[in-house]
């Protein structure tokens, strides 16, 4: 049996890559320094996996930004608008690469970035490849070959990783009409074959090709595309061992045709879908190797050795050992790097730490599982198994985990907990009277720039350089400045700015019972941006108010309404590492009850506009359509539980970004938020069509400017977007706001953009007044 890993985190255990990239972008370090950091990270990762005893160590799992962008770069899928960066500007290739990811506003050029979206049901974002009709591909970047050679020089014979051709195309978007992106497979495949032949010439042995779409519902065309592609690959490089990987779900009804593909090995995710093992063993031919993905790449709990060994043993009963591999369920990209970086007992107790495994520990688990499976009688292996059982036993019986009072509260949930007192139309009338807002009311999504200064206060507080009082005074000053500034701008519903929050989920994780947080458990979210997902280990409850102090403080400074700002239960669940000992639904209900208490406290303190953010509601959708209804039902119900404890006069907002609404609009409507603000500007308001087609009754704030770019749109652009919105949604329902929070932006561009946004709203109001006068 071979051991392997599908991919290792590339940010570095101290986020070295983030720091180096950001320094390079700011012109603070030369390219060579950035490359050196990247080399060091790769070497460290390869060596630690080698030392752990893994047989097949991945290469090309490193990325300066994103692995999908890397694939686009490899096959030369570089949209026309970027060509000038190389040809005219003579910039190095990496600048072109970063321009595709981040846009390019320099030296007279203003090129927008490629779109970014969520990677399946994770909190990782990939860059969406752009395709045109008849597009040609060519080997543009040799990164995969270079990294294979680099590892070889270091004495590590790696297993190169490539995103498969069908998934690569399916992840992308057609940029013009008249073709389907899968039509491009014929032009694309020769480049893949070229890469594979070159790898073969370099003596590569196994090559991992990821086709995550194989765990999704596929149509006949998609299945045929896969069959054709892997048939061609087999013909072209018969000697190369292709390991086809699937993850995040079961092969399900795709198993039949996948088992017939001419590949050397198939990897299946046995963490998400252990039940598929029997069917897979039965379906695949004896000469096809099977990789058992038993170590969870999506969570941080220690592996249950006994359970994994049972799966391994079942596989061994059916297949020769030399046809089996043991590995991670998916890439470890979604795990933090190294538990040993956690030394602070206050955030992560010794007991809790003994239940966890981060990427480095997971690599060891893979090696240990093989060792125990091969020789369960050795004293050393028996001790490993016993140690693992003991850790799991201590977790299962810990009094820190189970709180009867929380469990009773969940058991006591009834439909009434998810219902507002009256219908939206009666609520709307009451709220309008109370808030007295104009049409096209303006607001923002919550966060204002999290400047280096603000982040430094937090880091100084942690290091004892600032006292709690000094820290609070600084945050108060920032909040007051933001309130005054919003008043000056004449925004209608103000926000406090979220200066006190490190992150919209981690902040709540730090305040809620049943959550632990890490010092260094960073996971890449997109590019250089990372998040530190909190760990939900026990029953969740609210010990004390979490946002009341800062919301009340902000409201005390102004007569205008200040919007309370909370993260919703589904998003907190989705962006945390969750318990694996109870259904996600139950954990979500517990969080919903905690948020409900916070909402009620805010209302009692006189806050009558409260936003409950749910940007991850769509991301949480199961991979298979058949499972959608069940998820949407409990997810929407949890949102409603959190939102429905208030009086009709209190206006509940929700916010969603990164979402398409067409196929889930009835569930969005069922959330019954008084106002929903959505990311809309990049789609030029197209996302509103779903709301219009549904006759969505409640209020909507379609984002009028993209917050991912420093570019400040003109008032006219925003007016034009609002005109478009007004054409499909009755104006009485419309709000005016940016796409999302402004935490990643600088103050200068934020001030200018919001000033123009308020002007745009005023123009619309003036037009309306004229229209009414004329009619
Ligand atoms: C809305 N988004 C979010 C997602 N997931 C979340 N959990 N949270 C989100 O907001 N998913 C979808 C999107 C993804 N978008 C983003 C946007 C921005 C970031 C981001 O900026 N991340 C920061 C880290 C945020 C954080 O925790 N900051 C800490 C400071 C940590 C730090 O770097 N400290 C420094 C010291 C400070 C200094 O001297 O400058 C240090 O330790 O060295 C805080 O504010 O306290 C990032 O830097 O990547 C993520 C996702
Ligand atoms: N209130 C949050 C939502 C981000 S999705 C913010 O403004 O950053
Ligand atoms: Zn958002």
From TrEMBL:
Record's keyword terms, sorted: Amino-acid biosynthesis, Metal-binding, Methionine biosynthesis, Methyltransferase, Repeat, Transferase, Zinc
Molecular functions (GO terms): methyltransferase activity
EC number(s) given by UniProt: 2.1.1.14
Positions with a binding annotation for L-homocysteine: 445-447, 498, 613
Domain Cobalamin-independent methionine synthase MetE C-terminal/archaeal: start-end pairs: 440-762
Residues that coordinate or bind 5-methyltetrahydropteroyltri-L-glutamate: 118, 529-530, 575, 619
Protein's pathway: Amino-acid biosynthesis; L-methionine biosynthesis via de novo pathway; L-methionine from L-homocysteine (MetE route): step 1/1
Pfam family, one: Meth_synt_1
Every Cobalamin-independent methionine synthase MetE N-terminal domain range: 3-317
Essential cofactor(s): Zn(2+)
InterPro entries in alphabetical order: Cbl-indep_Met_Synth_N, Cobalamin-indep_Met_synthase, Met_Synth_C/arc, UROD/MetE-like_sf
Enzyme class of the recorded protein, top EC level: transferase
Cofactor note: Binds 1 zinc ion per subunit.
Reactions that this protein is recorded to catalyse: 5-methyltetrahydropteroyltri-L-glutamate + L-homocysteine = tetrahydropteroyltri-L-glutamate + L-methionine
Positions that bind Zn(2+): 655, 657, 679, 740
Purpose of the protein: Catalyzes the transfer of a methyl group from 5-methyltetrahydrofolate to homocysteine resulting in methionine formation.
Protein name, as recorded: 5-methyltetrahydropteroyltriglutamate--homocysteine methyltransferase
């Amino acid at each position: 049996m071979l051991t392997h890993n599908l991919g290792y985190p590339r940010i570095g255990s101290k986020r070295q890559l983030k720091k180096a990239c950001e320094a390079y972008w700011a012109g603070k370090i030369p390219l060579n320094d950035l490359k050196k950091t990247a080399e060091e990270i790769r070497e460290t990762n390869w060596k630690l996996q080698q030392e752990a005893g893994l047989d097949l160590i991945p290469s090309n799992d490193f990325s300066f930004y994103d692995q999908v962008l890397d694939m686009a770069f490899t096959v030369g899928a570089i949209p026309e608008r970027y060509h000038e960066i190389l040809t005219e500007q003579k910039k190095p290739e990496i600048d072109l690469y970063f321009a595709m990811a981040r846009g390019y506003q320099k030296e007279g050029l203003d090129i927008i970035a490629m779109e970014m979206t969520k990677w399946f049901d994770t909190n990782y974002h990939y860059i969406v490849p752009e395709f045109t009709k008849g597009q040609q591909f060519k080997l543009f970047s040799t990164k995969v070959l270079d990294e294979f050679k680099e590892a070889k020089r270091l004495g590590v014979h790696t297993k190169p990783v490539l995103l498969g051709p069908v998934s690569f195309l399916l992840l992308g978007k057609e940029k013009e009409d008249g073709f389907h992106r899968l039509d491009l497979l014929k032009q694309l495949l020769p480049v893949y074959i070229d890469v594979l032949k070159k790898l073969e010439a370099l003596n590569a042995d196994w090559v991992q090709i990821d086709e995550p779409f194989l765990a999704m519902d596929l149509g006949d065309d998609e299945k045929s595309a896969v069959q054709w592609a892997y048939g061609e690959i087999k013909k072209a490089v018969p000697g190369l061992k292709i390991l086809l990987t699937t993850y995040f779900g079961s092969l399900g009804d795709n198993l039949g045709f996948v088992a017939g593909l001419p590949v050397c090995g198939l990897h299946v995710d046995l963490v998400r879908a252990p039940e598929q093992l029997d069917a897979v063993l039965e379906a695949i031919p004896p000469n096809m190797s099977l990789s058992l993905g038993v170590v969870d790449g999506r969570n941080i709990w220690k592996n249950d050795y006994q359970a994994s060994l049972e799966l391994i043993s079942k596989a061994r009963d059916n297949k020769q050992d030399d046809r089996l591999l043991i590995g991670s369920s998916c890439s470890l990209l979604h795990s933090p790097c190294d538990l040993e970086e956690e030394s602070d007992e206050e955030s992560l107790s010794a007991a809790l730490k003994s239940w966890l495994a981060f990427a480095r520990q997971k690599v060891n688990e893979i090696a240990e599982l093989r060792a125990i499976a091969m020789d369960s009688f050795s004293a050393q292996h028996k001790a490993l198994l016993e140690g693992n059982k003991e850790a799991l036993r201590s977790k299962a019986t810990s009094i820190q985990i189970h709180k009867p009072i929380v469990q009773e509260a969940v058991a006591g949930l009834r439909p009434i907990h998810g219902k507002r007192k009256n219908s939206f139309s009666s609520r709307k009338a009451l709220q309008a009277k109370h808030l007295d807002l104009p049409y096209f009311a303006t607001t923002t999504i919550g966060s204002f720039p999290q400047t280096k200064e603000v982040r430094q206060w937090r880091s100084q507080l942690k290091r004892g350089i600032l006292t709690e009082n000094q820290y609070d005074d600084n945050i108060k000053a920032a909040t007051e400045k933001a309130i005054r500034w919003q008043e000056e701008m004449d925004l209608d519903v103000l926000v406090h700015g979220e200066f006190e929050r490190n992150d919209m989920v981690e902040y709540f994780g730090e305040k809620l019972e049943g959550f632990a947080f890490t010092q260094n458990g960073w996971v890449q979210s997109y590019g250089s941006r990372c998040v530190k997902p909190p760990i939900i280990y026990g029953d969740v409850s609210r010990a004390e108010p979490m946002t009341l102090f800062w919301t009340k403080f902000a409201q005390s400074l102004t007569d205008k309404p200040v919007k309370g700002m909370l993260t919703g239960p589904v998003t907190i669940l989705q962006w945390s590492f969750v318990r694996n000992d109870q259904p996600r639904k139950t954990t979500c209900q517990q969080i919903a009850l905690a948020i409900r208490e916070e909402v009620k406290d805010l209302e009692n303190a006189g806050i009558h506009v409260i936003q409950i953010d749910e940007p991850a509601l769509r991301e949480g959708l199961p991979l298979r359509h058949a499972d959608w209804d069940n998820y949407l039902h409990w997810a929407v119900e949890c949102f409603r539980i959190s939102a429905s404890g208030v009086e009709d006069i209190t206006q509940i907002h929700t916010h969603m970004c990164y979402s398409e609404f067409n196929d889930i609009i009835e569930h969005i409507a069922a959330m019954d938020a008084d106002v929903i603000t959505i990311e809309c500007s990049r789609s030029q308001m197209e996302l509103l069509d779903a709301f219009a087609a549904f006759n969505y009754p409640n209020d909507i704030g379609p984002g009028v400017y993209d917050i991912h770019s420093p570019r400040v749109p003109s008032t006219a652009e925003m007016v034009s977007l609002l005109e478009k919105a007004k054409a499909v949604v009755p104006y009485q329902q419309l709000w005016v706001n940016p796409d999302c929070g402004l935490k990643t932006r600088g103050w200068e561009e934020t001030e200018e953009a919001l000033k123009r946004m308020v002007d745009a709203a005023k123009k619309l109001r003036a037009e309306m007044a004229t229209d009414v006068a004329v009619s």
